[in-house]
Amino acid sequence: MQYNYSFEAASLLFMLLIFVHFMVVWQFPTEKTRVFRALLIVCIGESAFNILSSIGLANAGVVPQIVNEILAFVFFSFEGLSSLMIYKYMVVISELDQRQKKRAVSAAMIPAAFFFIFLLLTPFIGFYYYFQDGVYHQGRGANFGYFYIMLFFALNLVMSIARRKIINVREKYIIYFYTAAALIAIWVQYYHREILLTSLGNSVIVIMIYLSMQNPNDYLDTVTGIGNEAALELQLKDELMRDQEGTIIIIRIRQYQQMGMLFGAENCNMLMAELGQYFFHLGGKFHVFRSDADTFVVMTDKDRYQEMVKSVEGRFSEEWKIEENHILLDHTVMIMHYPKDFTTIPEFFGIKSYLLSVASGNVGKEPVIETDEQMIEGYYRQNQIEMILECALRERSIQVYYQPIYSLKEKRIVSLEALARLFDGELGYIPPAEFIPIAEKNGDIIRIGEIVLEECCKFLSKHVLSNMSLGIRSIQINISVAQCMQQNLKEAILPILQKYHIPTSMIVLELTESTAINAPALMEHHMKELGDAGISFAMDDYGTGNANCSYLMRFPFQEVKMDRDMTLAYFNNETARIVIENEIRTMQKLGIPMVVEGVEKLEQSEEMERLGVEYIQGYYYGKPLPEMECLRYIRNFNSAPEDYGR
Ligand code: C2E
Ligand code: CA
Ligand code: CA
User: For residue 595, which of 57, 111, 154, 640 sits 20 to 30 Å off, Cα-Cα?
Assistant: First the structure.
């Protein structure tokens, strides 16, 4: 038979090109990459020997039979291996655990063993092929070869269906596409044995995999040329799957955003590229990544990380050059170890963002944070609280407590602040300081806000409106930054007030300075709309940030609440006392009443009264209480405020 090997030759050329590209470009040394390399080599071998062997057969007159026999044998060996390697690649991208992987691979070993036993016997029994007078003939088992290839395609399909949740959509379509392409090639080959097509199918597979799942550009950060977050994930997943041990060093540049604003994006990128190079030399190829715009990650060994952190600290104590400026980079170093701290990728990213949040609350303190038992516990507690909160929102079991606000002039309780409360069977009382930041991060705060508002309205309509002698004029409700970011805050609030027939004049919304900083325009808009409807506003946490007075000029606040930390400072620090006294006087001149929080003793209350403060919110005049207890408390208190036993 005269063989036509033009398809085979073209396929070989394509695969060689890919091989060259693969060897030249950065490839992260993961198991996936290693298996792909092996697959590529096997496919190239198969193709090369298919061509050589058909040339040999075409020239049987000059080529000795033994040479042709060897070529055929090697070709068949590669053919048997290539199906196996495609399957192996499939097993790797399916992310099975070690045990499942062993099982999946040993399942494939049974047909492979048969294939190779028959191949070894072929020279003696002529199973796949035999030679007669130097001429090649197909043996009776030739179809078994086809069956073997089909079997592996079937296994691949089964695997892609069984692991459809792990394998992404793109990968899945590629698997279906190449299965179809390869089956067509095999089918045509079956009827046209003179045209060599085996490698056409293989080259389609190899090209598809290379362009989609092994594309090196997917894993490189364009600015720094080092690995990106996808590469980090890939590399780390590989380490975790192989039960390796190691340490991750995360370096975050704190002023990244300001730098962009000050020096421009281009200069900032140049500095990042320089940092990338620095870390590259420190950590070595394939061990350094830029995972967020402002974050670098170095993967290293347990016994080398301390020395590395030391050299990072050394380098960062010196200046970096950006444009013509020399600047010191404010940074945080975070260290975690695997598998001690995490064993999966989601856990890694969870702990990483937990560490970042710990670090951002650590301004001016120790710039190096290493995970310890307490920190990991903190992370798990945070996750647990997130779950508890979700459940509480579903069941509407978030409670609202009310804390009295006392008027120093009228000598009685005139208002209340609504405070969210979360209780759990296992963890007990979870303070808002813990769950509110979590809710702000994951968006649950919007639901909390709705529940608190509705509970307040129910409470007002049931117990306060019908009982004006109680003396409660208003209720104060906290509005978080995230709530203020909503476009339709008015629509989230007014319909609920209408539903319970609550006059808008009874509602005071507490906004913080951080809202003013994060969303000034929206805040202005909301204050105008809701203010026109009759709602008033209090500036909460006054004194914890900076430039307070400027916000009072810009935004129409009817009241200012001095933070508990300020009150503490007033009584403990002479300088703070002078500053705060001044602030209180300023408020008086501006005609803005002040609520002082955190007053726990009579002397403190008397001191505030002397300064001319209007209202006190503090344990001395009442702690936050559930609604019925609070009502009882107010009744008793207001009926005889002077002798109320505090
Ligand atoms: P905040 O708005 O500054 O609320 C005042 C906090 O000070 C309350 O803490 C209150 O119990 C506490 N406090 C008042 N007087 C005293 C005192 O004399 N001594 C001491 N040690 N503490 C006093 P709480 O209830 O733990 O709330 C903490 C923060 O959580 C609140 O600070 C507020 O920012 C937030 N929060 C609470 N409920 C909500 C809510 O429904 N929505 C939003 N967005 N935030 C809320
Ligand atoms: Ca408040
Ligand atoms: Ca406050």
Answer: 640
